[in-house]
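Hello, quick one for you while I still have it in my head. My current little project is about how a certain protein chain folds up. You're getting the sequence in one-letter code plus the fold written as tokens. Would you mind checking whether the tokens look sensible for this chain? Here's the protein in full, and shout if anything looks odd to you:
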Amino acid sequence: MSALLNQKIQAVFDEPGCDKNQGKSEKERKKGCTKQLAPGAAAGGCAFDGAKIALQPIVDVAHLVHGPIACEGNSWDNRHALSSGPTTYRTGFTTDINEMDVIYGGEKRLYKAIKEIIDKQDPPAVFVYQTCVTALIGDDIEAVCKAATAKFGKPVIPVNAPGFAGVKNLGNKLGAEALLDYVIGTEEPDYTTPYDINIIGEYNLSGELWQVKPLLDAMGVRVLSCISGDARYREVAYSHRAKAAMMVCSKAMINVARKMEERYAIPYFEGSFYGIGDISDSLREIARLLIRRGAPEDLMARTEALIAAEEARAWARLEPYKARLAGKRVLLITGGVKSWSVVAALQEVGIEIVGTSVKKSTREDKEKIKEIMGDEAHMIDDMSPREMYAMLKEARADIMLSGGRSQFVALKAKMPWLDINQERHHAYAGYEGMVKLVEEIDKTLYNPVWEQVRKAAPWELDEAAAVEVAHG
């Protein structure tokens, strides 16, 4: 591991904005949070994967993976992050290094790949991702990117987050560090307003940002930059001129929010766009921060009027579902901000939460769960597939909401399952998203397929009849 990468990892481990670090001694902070994974337990992704997840939603830049083609194949399109315009991010670029590159080095191949991308695609910037193999053979992507920037007159950004550096969450933060080191603060917006905000840690999964942006537009608030959902390179580069910021997922990009507050005096708060109550609170907090930074006082009145109208509209649309979903029990296997914000959202329509995963949640997330649910009994630190299966099979839950990796546990137990993680095809943010989430839960629970799959198969009925005759 290079000295530069090691220093960056140590800086991320020592992140003062991380709530876990706040309770540690200096020595404990330097050890970091990474622990060795047991064989077969690395399915959550590596540091390279985390960096790619965090930065690929910047839609107009070319994302070049310096490594074997399998690294690009495994990381491309791993989230349904949508774009309202450019589609450069949808093209997979890789240097596809081979055995000879391992022997002689891949720096020349990387330089040629950058030149070819600029010649053919002409993006505003190129992001170059280091991988395990190229890091181990000693390729200096920082030097190559610096030379390419000088030669071609375009920003070529090194993202030094090889997979062996750690887990996906570390990669999120290392990708964010690349933005802080090379992108943020390098350009200026055409104009600024007292209503400019940044949204940090939002990836526009299935278009969720587009469900929130009309609300902000109605308030008169401008999203100067979203880091990084549906983002343009230039927007990220001038994001340092925002008046306030909202942190959507602190597990991924707390270092961006904290360092921008430190360097550019941009105050931030952590909020959620899931659930009626939480989105209303987030809109109020955005207005409050902007007023504190000099926006007119009438912004709060506009915000309250918008909240009143949108809440009334949402509740009217949710009313038909309340009787059908009252008392239904949900097992929620997710993490981060969703571990509490989705809990609050579901409880609003009378759904009971039998358990929520906190494996990827911060201490603040856990405190919010306790606040909402009353105790720690419903918090699941790390539930094994066997335990999930038993809970569903014994009908302690009526439906499971989780990511794609857990779906087969529910299907094996012949229980309803709904995708709530990044691979989903529906957007659940904002008031509109809350209605959609409840609608999808209702459709999944009452799908007639579950009645069919739980019936005994014809040969099982024949066997039962034969046994009855034999004992008859």
